[in-house]
Structures are given as structure tokens and as C-alpha cells.
Amino acid sequence: MDFRRFLETVWRYKAIVAAAAAVGLLAGVAYMFVRPPLVTSTALVVLPGGSRYIQTQALIASSNPVLISADQAIRPALPLATLRKRVSVTSLTSDVLAINGRGESAAQAEDVANAVANSYLAYVSSPSSPVGVLNGRMLEKATVASGTGLRERILAAVVGLLLGLVTGAIIALGLSRADKRLRHRDEIADAIGIPVLASIPVQRPSDPAGWARLLEGYEPDVVHAWSLRKALRHLDLTDYRGGGKSGESLTVLTLAADRKALALGPQLAAFAASLGMRTALVIDSGQDADATATLCAACRTTSAAPSGRRANMQVSVAAEEDADRHLRPNALTVVVAVVEGKSPRLTGLLRTTATVLGVSAGAATAEQLARVALSAVADEREIAGILIADPDPTDATTGRFPQPVRPAEHRRPTRMPGSTMDAGL
Fold first, then answer.
1. What is the pTM of this model?
2. What is the CATH number of the domain that holds 311?
């Protein structure tokens, strides 16, 4: 998979990637609450008259006897292993030690540094000191804690976000490999060897009122209007003057599971009517009456009184009228038919002069499209083209088959005048 296809896949599953990124971000923030960043406070201890063994004193200050004694003054007490990790001792000069204590809060860091400093001074001033008695003193108590808490919190959140993005991208790639639905125009066209005639965005009415508004006021933009004109001309159903041919008809087949593609037929009919063509829209529920229920309801309520831009378009439901009344003379009849993807059956559908397959990007597999094509052949129908609903915004293909390249004619080599071959003739 190239980088462009990778970006397309991530964009296609952007909801999953965004959810994974959000989970990673929250995990990074939660981690900082469970294990907050440590801050540091420093106490300074001065030794009398300097010391040639200042590094040795630094080791003594962080030794177990000093830390065990210091832990008794820290509230709450810390395990010795934890305290050892939170204490470090460095020599600033030959007679000054810096005892650094870290804690989850400024108060804890100050307590650790001061407790270790006092424990060290008590230890080296006792007769049991392994380096002799040293009367050191506290030069400066630990009072100010410093740290990079905010920076560490931001870093943890960023790391969590990046890990979430990577995880989401991996999930998206896995889903993309398992998903056999076709999204690109070329993939859809190649699946059954039929070209794509038009790709347009579709409306998604969910009730009869929405379908009625679509039939009454559908208005594609210039680009998609041009695409629909070309599709009608390719099917030999109209010319650029908008004049309809006598008794022409078109079936727009869609899959029952592809609810977005259902709007292709009504939008095509409404567009043809807007060109001034006498148009008839017929809804044939086919194998799934539920898929067209709201559209049929809209047709029943609006068929009696056409008005406005739809004054020259009639609508009807195939199951409610005689078959011979559906195909209108001197008009373009657009039949919307729905079939199942697993076992499509075209037998019983109204017969028209042309048939196209409507499918939305990412809604059907090659197997489903092939079954529809085989069913059309069995019913002695020919699918003349494909209409794409809501094309993938990342799709740069066209779905149109290129014209065959004419093979170059075999040319005989040309002899140059005055060549050796001419001289020998």
C-alpha cells in the first residue's frame, strides 16, 4: 500500500482513528494523575575547613544508614528503595554538598531533602562515623521545590496522543484489508466491466416530506448537472436541448442495503423534469418494500397535484396501478427498482428501454454487483452504465474505460539519399 492509499484509508476510518487518538490522549493524562511528575528541592550542607574526600562524603550522605534514619522523619514514610531513588548528593565545592530530594509535591521534596541532610549531619558528627567526627552544619535548608511538572504532563499527553493515532491507523488498515466493499469508481466499473456514467452527491430523506421536497426542488450544481446531462445523452434519452424522445424509459437498479443510492433515480427524474422534459417517476419496490416505503408514501401524497418545477413530472407506485399505465408515452419514464444483494431477482420488474445500476461508494462488494449483473442477463436485460452516489472524496479515478490505443503501423526503414545503399543500385 502506497502512502496515498494509506492516507485515504486513515481518512475513511477517521472516526475510529480519532477515537483511538482520544483514548491515547486520555490515557496519557490519566498516567500523569496515577504517577505524577516529581519535583526537586535541595538542601546545602557545609563541612568545616574543607575536605579532601568530598566525594566520599557524598557517598556517605546517600548511604543506607543515613537514609534509614532520615526516613523516620518523613511523613508519610517511604520504602527504602523508593527513598534511594529520590535522593541524590553532589559536591558543589570542596566543602559544600548539595542534597537533592524529589517528591510528588513540593512539601514532600523539601521534607526528603531536609531529613536526609539532618540525618547526614547527625551521622558524621557521631563517634561511630567511619571517617571520623565532622562537625558540619546546614548551610541552607530546602525551601523551594523546582521541577518540570507541566512539561512532563504535556509530554505524556502528546505521547499518548501519538500512540493512539498509531493504534488507530493500524486498526484502520486491518479493517480496510478485511473490507471487500468497493469505494473507487474504477473498482466498481472493473467489477462488472461496465463504465460509470455519473457520480453525484445524493440527498438522504428519512420521511415522506423529505422525499417530496427532493422531487419538488432538487437542484444539482453546475458540475453534477453536466454529469447528469452526459449520462442521459450516453443512454440516448435526451439531447442538450432537453427534448425527450417518445416513450423512452430507464430502470435505475439499487441494492436494498444501499439506502443512499435509492435517491439516484428520483434525483435523475427531477433533473430531467427541470430540463423541460415530460417525465414519469415510477417506484417499483422490487424485492424490498421496506426500502422504498417512505418514498412510496411521498409519491402517493404528491401524485394528485403536481406543481412548481414538478408540474411536468408524474409520480406513481408500480404496485398500485396497471402495468400498461406505468410507461408513459411521449415522456421519459424513470423506474426505481430495489433488489437484494445476496439473491437479486429482476423477474417481474417493469421492462424499460435502458437499465443502469445505482450504487454508493463503499456500499457493495464485487460479488454483489456481479450477482446483479448475472441476474440482469438471465432476465434478458443489459446494464448500460453505473451511477455512483456520494463518491469517495479521495477517489481520483473516473470509472470510464480508456479508448483502446491503436497499434502503431509497421513502418519500413527509410533510406537517406546519397547513402551507400543508393550508390550501389
1. 0.62
2. 3.40.50.300
